[in-house]
Amino acid sequence: MTLAFAWLLAWVAGTAVYCAFDTRRAAGWWTSAIGHGLVFGMLLAGAMAYFFAREDTAHALRHAWLPLVVVAAIAAALAFWRRRAPVTTVVAKPRVERWKIILLAAGFLSVIYRGYLALREILLRPTFPWDAWDAWAVKSKTWFLLGHYVPFVSAAHWIDAAGTGDYTGPAWSYPAALAWVQIWFASAAGAWIEPLVNLPWLALWIGLLLAHYGQWRALGFSTLRAAAFAYVLASLPLLTVHVALAGYADLWIATLFGFAVLAWMRWLLQRDVNQLALAVACVLVMPWLKLEGAVWMLMSIAVALACEMPRRARHVVMGALAIVAAIVATVGHIKLPLFGLGWVSIGWHSIEVPVIGTLSIAFHAKALGGAFSSLFLQPSWHLLWWLVPLVIAWRWREFRVSRALRCLGALLVVSFAFLAFLFLFTDAAQWAESYTAINRLVMHLVPPVITLLALLLRDVPLPREPIHTAQSSAPHSSAA
Amino acid sequence: MMRRVLCAVVIAVVWLIVLGFAAGVVWTSPPLPSVKFPIAARDFRVVQGAGVEDGSSMRVGSVGDDGSALQAVSIDHLRADDFPVLRYRFDGFPRTLELSFFFRRADAPDDVQPAVTVPWPDGGWQSIDLSKVPGWRGEIIEMGFSEYPTPQLAPTSVAFQPFRFDDIELWSPSWRGNFASLLTSWFTYTPWALLSISALGPQREVAQAVPLVPLLLFAVALSLLVAAICLCWSWRSAVFRSAVALGALWVFLDLVWLDDLRKKHALTETVYAGKPWNERAQLVPDQDLAQAAERVRSYFASQPGTHRLLIGAESKYVFLKLIYALLPLDVAPLQQVAHLPWPPGEFFVLLYGDSSWHYDEKRAAIVDTTGHVVGAASGAVFGGGFAHNSRVEPVFENGDLRLYVRRAERVPSP
After folding, report:
1. Is the distance from CB of B197 to CB of A241 less than 8 angstroms?
2. Rounded to two decimals, what is the model's pTM?
3. Strands B116-118 and B139-149, bridge-based pairing
4. How far apart are alpha carbons A409 and A415 in whole angstroms?
5. Is the CB of residue A441 less than 8 Å from the CB of residue B197?
6. ipTM of this predicted complex?
7. Helices (runs of H) and strands (runs of E) counted in chain A
8. Bridge partners of B397?
9. What per-residue confidence (pLDDT) applies to A183?
10. For chain A, which end, N or C, has fewer CB atoms within 10 Å of the first or last residue's CB respectively?
11. Contact at CB, B268 and A120, closer than 8 angstroms
């Protein structure tokens, strides 16, 4: 009962917060609200536990439910106050052939089936994957079983700080947002019951799929096409693995990055400022989930700002970046304060990230084989990485006419360039050769990549010029 | 009509060539094996565990002390090159066990060639291409199977269920043998592994075939090209049909994955379904670690106050797993602080199994392989003008588990 209350409250609060953002009920609005609501709700519950239950983590629900109710109430009031008339554009619905409906139903059933398998897997098994018990659940289990929060510090600090009550561990510097989400659900379960603590991963996956479907609908996709792309996303094996073997942070990053890109696209295509705020919120949450989230956040902000700049200003910024590169080239290194990562020292031969360590720079040819095998040979992604270049080559002209697509393309190019640099030119190459990290980091970009493919293959043309007013926007939105 | 028939024939030939390449078919070999070398399971002898004859089969009813069973058969100098395909059949083989194949050669009769993991016997015949197994050459004088709990996954205490070992066959080269091996390799069940969270491809089995995804994609692309040329498709029609074909291929791959996921999950159901959480929490693959953690936890439960515990083990997996199992004790990996000077105060040190550290009774210290005292700070001056010497004493020892306590002895500075 308590567990059901914890879930319901989190979901309602998350949905209310989403509704406060999404004031205009476009097509797919309710699936979008449920999907975002599930994810936002879990994160909000974790945040409430962090703020209100640090001294009594074992009863986090008891201390944090009321603040969450208040947040939900305020968000609901805001959503009601800010609500706008739903989009009433009536578009003739094309007749959908029976065979397409049958295919759609079969795809839907297959998604339900894998969701069922993942649910059973989570509910039956103690935490299984390596980093789940080595990194992501260490803080939550410690805090919950201790009954209160204790700081995690580096091993060197820990050994010197006898009597302070500090803890340490290999993942002491990892962000703790997911730990607080787990504490919320552990306190609702009344004990450290791993299946119940890991259940949020299934909700996350459901949220990812529903929100993407809803946002694609809002971007003008037909039901059939949005559902087809939702199936594509749901069918990717590695995503399902991250649900079934719950406990890693990568699916959270992928989901938030996917949400941010969808909202950003709605801003670019429909000039809906609420969606821009939503994108910013999603991007800002990412560093609290996983360190790589800080990298994606910085890149997203940089590309989004560049997209909004006039051409001339963009050139000035590029020039400034070139000067920074020249300084690095001549001085040998430069130190930059990067949010979530600390003072990052970049040099010719190494990059030093305080919370990660030093990565020496050299080309690792062997990692190319690992990367190729991971993306193109192994069954982790079905045909995705074969189809991406094909679709881009086929629909290349779309980039020329749509600024939104160019912006999304630029973000993905920069992101993949970062991954290529990381796995081919730094010590992280060993994780590509051993297949231990490359797929998981690539997974962060998968929902945005699917959105790019969906936009390239959509059945309604994109606006050819940027639209500057909300009134004239949403030319393709149709009544649900 | 003729054009369509021709197109279908060409496409069939394309698939035959592509699949034949993937299967490693020697085109000059016969379609069916000219020689088969069957061995009934009852001819095998039980080396480990227990088994009884059941008609021509062998019913394996229990495992040895280490949780594994092993059956072997001596054979009369069989030339490995003449028999590149092994087929085997089991009935009721438990999901929780893994199967490996081993053999002995005449040129090294005292050495068992390294055992190789083979596809899980999913009912009916399974085939593997032995020519891809390292060491399968020369004359074979013995071969056999070993069954043991699936590594990283199956708890030893519940892994074994009785099963029936039916028979094996060795086949001479043939198309059928090669294609059967290909099918087994592509569609066999592979259990979850720690690597599954990062990549689904690399598995433990040997004799892996060409990966399914690129090969089918290549065959589909070639078929589309042939069809577009033979049937004079327009550009628009070619694009549409290609999209449909790729969509169908995606769905096919997804069905293969769903089947694999279903089978992976079956192991989880076998081990955990119908049991309460308290029982399931104990059913971990490394039950020895769980028991060790329980022993340590009960010791500290009887010790008042808070304690700091450092864990050392050779394997990273072992000490990290112990740390997680011991939470919320204040635990840390010894590896990370062994080189640092430790301040005065009490530290417990837990060493598990083989490790880079051991207790030196004469020096009353934990030392590493170079003889360096872990946490050494002797002579170092700490606040208060006192130097300190530390002394390590054993607390208890239980199998692989050794617990020590290090206490500082404060002595007046000279």
Report:
1. yes
2. 0.92
3. unpaired
4. 10
5. no
6. 0.91
7. 22, 4
8. B402
9. 97
10. N
11. yes
Among residues A169, A141, A153, A145, the alpha carbon closest in space to that of B309 is found at A169
User: What's CA B125's distance to the chain center, in Å?
Assistant: 22
Residue of chain B nearest A196, judged by CA positions: B277
pLDDT (0 to 100) of residue A311? 84
Q: How far is CA A465 from CA A46, A209, A410, A451, A469, in A?
A: 41, 29, 18, 20, 12
| Residue A57 DSSP SS3 | helix
CB contact under 8 A, B192 and A245: yes
Nearest to B186 by CA among B172, B170, B168, B207: B207
Cβ distance of B202 and A159 shorter than 8 Å: no
Residue A14 DSSP one-character state? H
Burial of A88 (0-12, 13-18, 19+ CB in 10 A): exposed
A394-404: per-residue pLDDT in tens?
A: 999 999 889 99
Query: Cα–Cα distance between B83 and B62 in angstroms, integer?
Result: 31
Cis peptide before B328 (omega within 30 of 0): yes
Which residues from chain A sit within 8 angstroms of residue B340, using beta carbons?
155-156, 159
Report yes or no: A208 and A447 within 8 Å, Cβ to Cβ: yes
Q: How far apart are the first and last CA of chain A?
A: 35
- Closest alpha carbon to B297 in B141, B401, B189: B401
Beta carbons within 8 Å of A480's beta carbon, 6+ residues apart: A27, A28, A29, A30, A217
Model pLDDT for residues A319-353, shown as the tens digit of each residue: 888 888 787 777 777 787 777 677 888 877 788 88
Q: Quote the tokens at residue A471.
A: 């009134």
In chain B, whose CA is at the least distance from the CA of A104? B251
Say which of A133, A143, A394 has its CB closest to residue B324. A133
Q: Residue A125 and residue B272: Cβ atoms within 8 Å?
A: yes
Show residues of chain B in contact with A193, CB under 8 Å: 277
1.10.287.130, 2.40.240.50, 2.70.180.20, 2.60.120.260: CATH of B32-218+238-282: 2.60.120.260
Asked if B395 contacts B404 with a C-beta cutoff of 8 angstroms, the reply is: yes
**Quick one: tokens of A40?**
């936002």
* Per-residue pLDDT tens digits for A114-145: 999 999 999 999 999 999 999 999 999 999 99
User: How many C-alpha atoms does A283 have within 13 Å on its Cβ side?
Assistant: 23
What pLDDT does residue B115 have? 86
Shortest Cα distance from B126 to chain A (angstroms)?
22
- Residue ranges of chain B whose pLDDT lies below 70: 202-207, 377-388, 409-414
Closest Cα partner for A293 from A373, A178, A167?
A: A178
Residue A388 vs residue A352, higher pLDDT: A388
In whole angstroms, what is the distance from residue B104 CA to residue B136 CA?
9
Residue A162 touches chain B, beta carbons under 8 Å:
yes
Q: What angle do CA B3, B5, B8 make, to 5 degrees?
A: 110
3-state secondary structure A123-190: HHCCCCCHHHHHHHCHHHHHHHHHCCCCCECCHHHHHHCCCCCCECCCCCCCCCHHHHHHHHHHHHHC
